[in-house]
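Exercise (ungraded).
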Amino acid sequence: MTEQPREYWRWQEYHRVRNDKSWKNKDVITAGVDVGSVGSKAAIMIDGEMYAWAVTRTGSNSPDSANKVMGMVLQDTDLKQSDIQYTVGTGYGRVNVPMANKAITEIACHAKGANYIWGPSVRTILDVGGQDIKAIHCDESGRVTAFLMNDKCAAGTGRGMEVFADLLQIPIEDIGKVSLSVDVEPPPVSCTCVAFAKTEAIGLLRKGWTREKVLAAYTRAMAIRMANLVNRVGLEKEFVITGGQSKNMGIVTRIETILGVKTLPSPNWREGGLDPMVAGAAGAALLGKALYLKSKG
Amino acid sequence: MITHYGYIDGSGEYFIVIDSEKCNGCRKCVEKCPQGALELVTEFIDLEDKTVAAVSEAHRKKIRYTCQECKPEENKTPCVLACPKGAIRCSWKSP
């Protein structure tokens, strides 16, 4: 039997339930479903506290992806779909979330979610999604005050990183570490468009550049683009990165260097902490709670 | 919420900036835009839905082409002049 070839771009799909505390009252149970262009995330909150979450790949069909991630998040909990009193859909596929009571843009949800994960001091949020980058500025309640989305395509996004992981045959979870392993930072690639950057990268590899150097040059170009967006929307030192690329140390470290600001430390999601990738879903569940309470008067 | 729509590239920085707190959804900018790049959308602010002007999804990622004709007239573009509330600004900064 031949061994399956490794899919370097594939990232970990998982679900988690927090059983480290007892959930007694359960007055309000809400869910947030964030169907992104590449990843689908769901969060269940009990009385405004994160109880369970799940992260999976978005398929070609938004309702199926929403159902799949909702099924995952309910696994290993003692809840059923019908126990959830209010569900908010968000993200790229938000209008196609079958179980949602309401759809809210991911901008509002990310700000609310970042406010929950890092606390009320957060002011500037860079959300690096699968297919776009958003820079958000918010106040102490997690209310959006300014917002900017990148102007085009997948440049500098999670999908771009998947393409490079695949091209360079480096597992996606190692891509940050590998990009930081160069002794001297090479000049950034000139093209930020993923398709053209890939062509440029192939040219550099042929010229004898190492994989590490090519990756560093690409990551640097992406970080510069992201830093421009952040500066435009207003950088404050209470700065965080959400979305899948918050796990890419190569991006995070370079943005910190370019902007001269450290991001607020992320909870360690591998060891049970909240996942910055779930910020949108968490925010959606929190807004769901507020809307539910409002509807009850 | 202040939303920035635009781009940064070798030719400079061009942005249309819409302040949804000032916008009253009167639709005048939507009617005046020669390219039909603006539309009214529902924005969720303070747990309420509000109808406000925005650059349409279709034009959001090609503003460099859509706004080319009006671009040289910083803050004198039809959309900016049409707004009775001063909710739209537009800026063009060459490098």
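Further reading is listed at the end of the chapter. For now, observe: The radius of gyration of chain B is 13 Å. Residues 2-93 of chain B form a domain with the Alpha-Beta Plaits fold (CATH 3.30.70.20).
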